[in-house]
Amino acid sequence: MDIKRIRTAAWTGALAGALVIGGVVPSATAAPYCGITWGSLAEQRAGRDTGRVFDVRAGRHTCFDRLVLDLDGDAGGWTVRYVDQVVRAGSGTVQPVRGGARLEVVPGNGAVASDAFFIGRGAEVVDTMGYRTFREVSWASSDLSQAKVALGVRARLPFRVLVVDGPGAQSRLVVDVAHRW
């Protein structure tokens, strides 16, 4: 072997060793958790709403917790965003919510507080005991034109919003919050 090849091999070996010792290890980009590529910035859609919220429910999935607002018509416009405090419409008072972060879920649809799903439940409308991400789902405010749900989560985590049509003329506003980044 000539001296030039020996020096090149020595430098290459020394550089690779220094990178490993210094904590800089070239590697492929890590795959996202469960393939989730959502973010945590506000999401909204403008549109005309024709239905009212008639139920609020939640579910647990392998990679995320899911909030569902059932509507008796179209889900036109909506806004979902992280906020420091969820403020009740009309009164301006703060809706206390358990968790390290709060999502304000505002469908453009109204609700009537005498609807069956409100009776006897108080502000907290979903039992989140045993959920990995959700800490509390509570009713923040409603009137005939707009409802507001306060969703307390463990931390500011990625989320997505979906609108699912059906069954029939009904639709659902769905908010999924990942278990982790």
What's the quick description here?
The protein is mainly beta and 181 residues long. 10% of the residues lie in helices and 39% in strands. It is globular.
* Order of SSEs: HEEEEEEEEEEEE
Q: Report the uncertain regions.
A: 22-27
Helix content: 10-25%
Oligomer: single chain
Strand order of the largest sheet: 1-4-7-10-9-8
Tally of alpha and pi helices: 1
Rg, Å, rounded: 24 Å
Query: Beta-sheet strand percentage?
Result: 35-45%
Q: Looking at the structure, what is the overall shape?
A: globular
**How does the major sheet shape up?**
6 strands, antiparallel
The average pLDDT score comes to 82
> Could you tell me how far the N terminus lies from the C terminus, measured between alpha carbons in angstroms?
51 Å
Q: Which structural class do the helices and strands define?
A: mainly beta
How many β strands by DSSP? 12
